[in-house]
Amino acid sequence: MIQFSCDCCLSSSSRNSFPQLIFCLSFSSGIAAFPTALLFAAIGCSIGSRPLQLRRKQTSEQLLSLLFIPPVQELRTGILNLILQHSKTFCAHSQMATNRGRDSYLWALVMAAIYQAVYRRASSLFCRFHSTYVKKMRYLNELKEDDGFCRQAQTSGTFYLFHNLSPFLQKVGKKYLLPQLSAAEMKRILEKLKETEQWIEKSVLIGCSDEHVPHFALDLGALEKSVIESELQGSFTDLRKALFVVDVKDSPLLASMSPVVITLVSDGSRCLLTRQPSFPQGMYTALSGFCDLGESVEEALRREVAEEVGLEVQSFLYSASQHWPFPSSCLMIACHALVGGKQTEISMNSLELEEARWFGLEEVLEGLKRDHTSSKQDDGSFLPWFPPKQAIAHKLINEWVKQQTSRPT
Length: 409
Prior knowledge:
Elements: H1 17-28, H2 34-49, H3 60-66, H4 73-85, H5 87-94, H6 99-129, H7 132-145, H8 147-153, E1 158-163, E2 166-172, E3 175-177, E4 181-182, H9 183-192, E5 204-208, E6 214-219, H10 225-232, E7 235-236, H11 239-245, E8 255-256, E9 259-266, E10 271-275, E11 287-290, H12 297-309, E12 313-325, E13 330-339, E14 355-359, H13 361-368, H14 392-405
Parallel strand pairs: 1-6, 9-13
Antiparallel strand pairs: 1-2, 1-4, 2-3, 2-7, 5-6, 8-12, 9-10, 9-11, 10-14, 12-13
């Protein structure tokens, strides 16, 4: 923001000083646009050449009282703020300035405040009408509602490939990326496999970029996997494993929406973490399960905890939400649950879980430092570790840690 002093603009009675005053005020009031400053200077010239015909009773004090007449709070606040900003300068020159000079100064403040109020409102409307997010959401809605428009978008969209629900990844250095294939690249791959372009019509819309490039997911499970991997120099990876290695910004592209409850259970000083046989070795996470038909989130949460570990939830708190992997069409709703201090004995459902146990704060802190590569010990066993940062279970565990460490000792 450009700042100018108003000292040079306040003279005792010269009309020519008023345009300079307006010009400087337009900068010192936060109006950094040079053309706007010139405009206000021009207005000042006009006013300076035709002094306001004020009755003798309309003194500076009466002008100050006018500041409380406008019903618009934003305008009134802006005027008062400007007066406070320039109060020192005003007071320093009040003795030497004429009534006309003081009145001109106050009117300059009023004009600058009006400009600021109008500018803020105009900027707000401009941002609202030109919001990238709003445009993006409306474009996506049009794609969902109009099948013809969606098919047309497939010719210019990008595609993420799956093979029997396993996403296609490419390793670049130490990172794993989800490559975006253009429609032209998709046609080339299909020609290589001696398939028609009709495969593209089987793709599923999963989102779009801010530039309105639609994203589609396409499962090629019926086609030869090795040919695709060789042609694109990558590999199809198990979906759960892929979520642990892809970048945080890419993980949402592997998912779409529907309700699943994921719950971190605590007894006040410990948290309960579980693992399933299909999990990577050593990994523990929070309890999760689908909502049944007609079931609320609260009901699903209490039922899952009771079914899987035999505990009764006393209270719970919502945390956040996240997608579960495409194409299961699941929205994960994350919560914290508290069980009674006298009812903490776990009765595990062995059909669902391989292990469920309580973790203290120190053990959780150590587990957060590990990942799937550093948890393996020399004897072949694995120390506990938790889902990566992009997983909502990781967020729940971190929130629990912060809650425990913030308690007074």
